[in-house]
Amino acid sequence: MRSLGEPADLTYTVSLPVVVHDAPDDEMAVAIADVPIIPVYLDAMAPSTMSISVVTADSLTVPEIADFGPVIPALPEADEVCVRRPAPRRITATATASAAAPDAKKLRKPIPEGTLQRFLYSSTFHLVNVGDSYAERQRKALEARIAARFTGGTRFVPVLSRKGGVGATTVTALMGMAFADVRDDRVIAIDTNPDRGTLAERVTKTTRSTVRDVISRSGSITSQAEFESMASRDETGLDVLASDGTPDQAQPLGEDEFNVVADIASRYDSIAVTDGGTGILHAAARAALQRADAVVVVSGGSVDEARSASELLTWLETNGYAELASNAILALNTATVGTNLDKVEEIEAHFLPRVREIVRIPYDPMLATGSVIHYHGLKPFTRDAARDLAALVADGLSAGQDA
Fold first, then answer.
1. What's the burial of 363, exposed, middle or buried (CB within 10 Å: 0-12/13-18/19+)?
2. How do residues 372-392 score in pLDDT, each as one tens digit?
3. Could you give the domains of the chain?
4. In 117-270, at which residue ranges do the beta strands (DSSP E only) sit?
5. CA-to-CA distance for 66 and 285, rounded, in angstroms?
6. pTM score, whole prediction
């Protein structure tokens, strides 16, 4: 078609390539040759007959095919028991580590006590720990005896004497303080002296209440705090229940009255030490003996004082308390006026076959004043004697000791 305005004699010339497409070698390898087929040639080359072999099913051999599927076991018979194995416990790395490594704190020995032992421990940067010194081991063993646990209720320990001035009240206070200083339960000392005892004067008074107040209010005492508020407590934790008031108002406790006080003490205290004053024939002393689990007999260091203590043991032996007498602890107070140190060993030789043990109470300036006893201010020998006395008494109370 000619566009408007073009000349009539205009000619277009288009040059086409000679080879339109050059096939690559890989295409030529599979290409069909461009040769015409002449039918006459096919007829000449074709065979005259053709036979086809047919394979029947009988002659056909099928190869076995391997089965690689899962092997399923047969179910058990009816009379067999199928047991299910539990899945193995999964052990985590944390559990394995904790089981393999023990607690280092539990295996670590405590810091040793003793001057040389602690110096060695500190100077080696805690690498060498030889343990406590012999003295510290002895101290801890003694405290373990004092702190022994008991079953079966409160233990009552009367302190007995037949002669005044031998220091029964002092021994009662010392033993009670030694118990309270070590034990973590309650210890009480009860003054049952019929002649207005002075036990409460050996500690700092924190109350004006007496055993009479406990008796009169016995029906309303329903807690440990109420009972303890009527006693004075010293620095060791010992509760001291004072005897009746002034001498002109004092009235000896009867047997029933003592039992009222003792019953209340049995609710809250582990050990009750009683100071019966002079003599063992008054009602409170008899009631205390009926409850006694052990007794402490006090003697001075003179022959006359020792004779009175010997007569007291004889009375116990002949009045139904032979077992208490044979298990008694003799507190030999060597600070009395008539003490003859040359005779002390003879006195001890007299008592050894009759009592379980003997403890010497040494002279101490604080005890000699007869005033308040500050337990931790006593001379070391005096404090050791008090601890020995408490441990020996505790040994006699340990028949019902807890495991």
1. middle
2. 999 999 999 999 999 999 999
3. 108-146 (no CATH), 151-400 (3.40.50.300)
4. 155-161, 187-191, 232-233, 239-241
5. 106
6. 0.69
